Structure formats: structure tokens, C-alpha cells
Amino acid sequence: MADDPEDYDDLDEDDELSGDEEAGEPEVTIEISGLSLYTHHGVSPAEQEIGQRLVFDLRLDVGDCDATLTDRIEDTVDYAKVCQEVALAAQQRSYRTLERLATAVADRLLDRFDAQSVWVKASKPEPPIPLPVDEVSVEVWREAE
């Protein structure tokens, strides 16, 4: 259906009708949800020795992303590499708190990828506590300097 000129009667003189090429590059946020890793983090010796599954949710704000114009994979963040970096950060050493682990992951992502900010949520789906809960989690948000 063609645009009806009457649809634009409410526009102010300063308003513009523009195509994608005139709008500029959009701000891009990349999200990865449910990255499940077996790790050895926690306060108790059992958590550190036996280990447990943690689930990571990630958000990288990359700002202007050339891939929105070029459609080239090399012009964006490689999601598989992000997941690999999270796995390395979570499995190379053990932390007692989820707060420290999530911060280490966030710092690593900021260091390795061209992001303006990152958000990391680390969750324990089966926390070792005596009350029934679905999960416990910690969220950390960091900005690039």
C-alpha cells in the first residue's frame, strides 16, 4: 500500500522523512543468553573441588558497528569468541564469589573486544543452600575507560 500524503500532515516543518542511509548507523548491543559452563567456584570445598554448572548471560554494547552497513562478519563481534573468552575466564582459575568471577569475566570482555560497556550475569542454578531456590545470580556492569 502506498503512503498516503495525509499521513504526514501532523509532521512539523523541522521533522524529516529519511531512509536508512540518512539515519546514520544504529547503536548495536550483542546479547548471549544461557552460556552453560562447568566450573569450580564457590566458598565451600565441595564447590571448589567437585565443581558445578554456572550459567552466563552477557550483553556487549558495541556502539556504531560497521556490520550494520557492510554485512561483513569481520566488522562485528564474533559471538563464538566471546563465549570462548568467558569459558577461559571462568575455568582458568577458581573464585570464591560470583561477584569476583563476574567482574573478571567483564574485565576480560572489555579487554578483548571493542565494546563501550559489558554486562555479565553469572547464575548458580543449583546453589548449595538449605532452602529451595531456582537460582542465585550476580550481575556486573562495566564501562570501557
Name the descriptors.
4 strands, four-stranded antiparallel beta sheet, GTP Cyclohydrolase I, domain 2, alpha+beta, 28% helix, 145 residues
Plain-language structure description:
By secondary structure, the protein is of the alpha+beta class. The protein has one domain: GTP Cyclohydrolase I, domain 2, CATH 3.30.1130. It contains 5 helices and 4 strands, in the order H-E-H-E-H-H-H-E-E. Strands 1-2-3-4 form a 4-stranded antiparallel beta sheet, with helices on one face. The longest helix has 15 residues. The chain is elongated.
Brief account:
The protein is of the alpha+beta class. The chain contains five helices and four strands.
Write the layout of secondary structure elements.
Elements: H1 20-23, E1 27-39, H2 45-49, E2 52-64, H3 67-70, H4 79-91, H5 98-112, E3 117-124, E4 136-143
Antiparallel strand pairs: 1-2, 2-3, 3-4
Helix pairs in contact: 4-5
Biggest sheet strand order reads 1-2-3-4
Tally of structural domains: 1
In percent, how much strand structure appears in the residues?
25-35%
Unreliable stretches: 7-22
